[in-house]
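lol so apparently i was supposed to do this last week
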Amino acid sequence: MRFEELSYPDAPKMVTPVPGPRSREALALQQRFESNVVSYSKAIPVAFEEGRGATIKDLDGNVYIDFFGGAGVLNVGHCNPDVLDAVRAQETKLIHALDFPTRPKLDLIQKLVAIAPGGMRDRSKVFFGGPTGSDAVEAAVKLAKFHTKRIGVLAFEGGYHGMTSGALSFSSGKKFKENFLPLLPEVHFAPYAYCYRCPFGKADGSPDDCCMQCAEYVRHMLEDPHSGIVTPAALLVEAIQGEGGSIVPPDAYVAELRTIADDYAVPLIMDEIQAGLGRTGTMFACEHSGTTPDLMTLSKGLGGIGYPLSACVCRDEYDTWPPGSHIGTFRGQAVAMAAGHAAIQFMEKHRLPEHARSLGARMLKRLEEAQGRSRHMGDVRGRGLMIGIEFVHDKKTKKPAEDIARDVRRRCYSQGLIVELGGHYNNVVRFLPPLVLTEELADKGVDIFAKAVEEHEAGR
Ligand SMILES: Cc1ncc(COP(=O)(O)O)c(C=O)c1O
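anyway here it is w/ pyridoxal-5'-phosphate bound
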């Protein structure tokens, strides 16, 4: 299969100014009947009708290149035909099965254990809870608490793990939490190796130095009897941070977290919900540093083409809880599991992680060229197809420029490219395209982005 065949051939193709009349009508209805809490469609005012591969069409017939990918869900592309075949075959047989074994569940759990990273491979167990990423995070931490008989969690600055009370407690963004306190007790935040804005103030952000200082501080938090932190039930970390702004820490930092976790007998939970399943150029982001977690959370791409599904994988020796300790009505959605299994098979057959790695490197190179011409592209970073461009008012002071990032996103949208924002200051334009993105669409998307920056800077 050629990836070209998966997407609309003529993207981007804009046939109306945006939002077009049908999108406007849909947005008005949404505003009338859906809670004010909706956010994406306020940032990008559009209503979509169809998606194919790495492209998406709105209600007015405008076709966009999709660098958002449903917030990193659509790794094998919108409506991937192989996955759709598996879905159609399953949906006429059995859809809901609680936690009884079904063919799709058996296929999926065997596959997850077979592809698990490093020392987890063939030596782990899978468990399911609710269907969202937040549910998986809750479940993994719950098992770590049960296993260690401790209650605390050491999470990381810039980390994002979801919106349920536990997951929100472990997430760092203040704006998400400030109206909902108190959350879980004994959650502390350790420095993450965000070298562009080094937590220890190293002006040049020289990664090798900087990252080890962050790791040493994590060690200090666990070592010093007066750090104020009781030994936690888990260290919960993203090997590459997503919502925090596509932050790629040096591999040595992630590897050192493993050593620290071992030294203090704290289970290491890697949240691979966004960075996992091929996105960063390896099946799991922790593999770049050769790190094996004790527990791992998965969701987003796990449901194949957007079916809600999440799972946890734990090393065999952690599977210590008795039956019924963690339950949930939707632990056996057979269609989602068939979709997930078919998606992983597609990834393997078409070597999607390798494709993500080489295409991401090409995009980064072209973005760095654009950065050389720009006053406001402060940092360009990423791994595979998880890319972030951090906007600043001034490259020397690094004053965050959310306003510029927003304007660039708006300009991209009007030219047929969907991108999202994230980062500590919401000033990072994020690319999370389907991994079936072609070189041609990648180049066109980067060109649209670079032109949007150029036009912003020229005041046009
Ligand atoms: C790393 C990570 N963990 C957990 C979550 C929460 O997943 P969900 O939104 O499905 O609850 C997200 C969502 O963006 C995520 O990026």
